[in-house]
Amino acid sequence: MSLDFDPSSLSIPKGHHIGGRYIDFGGEPIEVRRPSDLQVMGTLEDGGEEAVEAAVQAARQALKASNWSKIAPIERARVLTRFAELVEQRSLDLARLEAANSTRLIAETTVRDAARTAGTIRFFAEYCDKLEGQTTQTQSGILSMVRPEPYGIVAAIVPWNFPMITAAWKFAPALAAGNAILIKTSELTPYTLLLLAEIATEAGLPKGLFNVVNGYGQTTGAALVRHRSIGKISFTGSTATGVAIMTLAASHGTKPVTLELGGKSPQLIFADNEDLDALAAKVAAGFMGNGGQVCTAGSRLIIQRKIADELVEKIEARCRAITPGPTWREASDFPPIINEKQLARIDSLVQKTLAEGATARVGGSRLETRNEGSFYAPTLLEGVTPEMTGYQEEFFGPIASIHRFDEVEEGIAMADHPTYGLAASIFTTDIKKALLAAEQIESGMVWVNQNGRGPEFTFPAGGFKGSGFGKDMGRVGIETYTRQKAVWINYAA
Asked: How confident is the model at residue 371 (pLDDT cuts 50, 70, 90)?
């Protein structure tokens, strides 16, 4: 059975989802376009302070009426498990909506995005009754306890590149820990989040615990960060925006933030790899997947000289062998850039790097296709040095720079980046080299012999340095939505 579908046949959510229903406030209209053909998919509004205030009030009332943070954890788990089941039942609807509205291919959204969203909800549902406090040693007659407690209302601001999965990493643990969640969608890719809020209400989640507001970052996003009733902010996006959010949060209530930001992730490749065809497939996917629109994209290829020329030829062949096309066609294996503005930004960075002295071995320009979408050619850059734009800036497109090394320590040193430290991939059959590199590279995530996380939910995601701080997923992914209360009881008094 073909996965192809007609994007114009989809049912499109309309409005913010606040208090269990769709609602508008008459704000500035925002056209939402399909990246694959740039056609208008629907219209939403910039909610601003009015929508944020309504969502906060709905969350406050829901927490009070439902006693969500105080009910038996197993009851929270029951509701969230039902939520996961309904997501699975609606997985095709979600997968199609995600594919049409974003750069995610239908071949991937059906088997990955929707399924992993349901899995994330189920994973954290199982954690509801496993958050533990502790008692500390004291003198006789004293009981000292540390209790994990929810913040109350938390806000998540999610990006456009993996809108459904990234949001689930935030709303699932926040709800499981006993919080209410307010999510600001990207104005470019709002629809799956709105449908998820609708499904959550259908699953029996108290109305107002899961609210979704639409709008621009500088208006609706800023209103979320400023609101003093919001106890914590979680953000995934660019480093520049993360810095702005952290600054704004500090000046309006000094609330804690979790930030997963940009990256210039290395793929460190040692010469002991024997199957260069299989290796080329992994490395190419590491910077071309989702059109390179991945924060962990392995955009710096650091290759031991002995195999560099042969491996680069094989990677180049894969750059040329793509099948670009609409995200709603199963045969497409290379998606568009999210919009024309982002494509122009990518091309500007590439052209600056070329003007600074680098050369394009393949690509280096817009990709002309039969579609009307914004496609950029997979690009391999040679001669990129640390002072160049292409080394310093995150492309967020299908671009990789090629670097060669001779000795092990030289390659490991090259893998570090002065600004970013989100992820790193190491390809070697030598466990000693793998462990040495993993230990020395300053990065929040390290993969050996693959690029990107697997299907497991226990692996935390987050970076070092300019790539942010705090983690999503894993046990720490739910602990980050709790605060620690110290209780001292003098029962001998």
From this structure: low
